[in-house]
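Our platform keeps sequence and structure together, in a single record for each protein. Such a record has a labelled line for the sequence and another for the backbone structure tokens. Nothing more is needed to write down the fold, since each code stands for a local backbone conformation. For reference, a complete record is included directly beneath this paragraph:
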Amino acid sequence: MDDTRSPERDNLDWEDTMKRLVTLILMTALAVSLAGVAGAQARAPRLERREWRQNVRIHRGVLRGQLARREALRLRLHQRHIRRMEWRMRRDHVLGMRERIRLHRALDRQSARIRRLRHDGRCI
């Protein structure tokens, strides 16, 4: 057998290698772009957890008679306002530091509101 390779064979190996390289680069670019879109649409877990806990506190307040239906309704409207604020802030797919601070402050005020209404000494 002859140890020398034909130029046609070398050319086919080079083309095959280039096709694989281009495919790998395109797949990597696609994966990175999809991860960016998925990350932009995902909610911040800390904010979501805080909102969920506040909803649970409102619900428990109603069940235990610590909140009147009207108070609970008003608190739920505030919760909805905070969710809408977050949605509006996320329209550009980025939640910046100032926006996070603003949302956390709104959640802090809501938390204080829930506590004040649940512990105002009135039982229903």
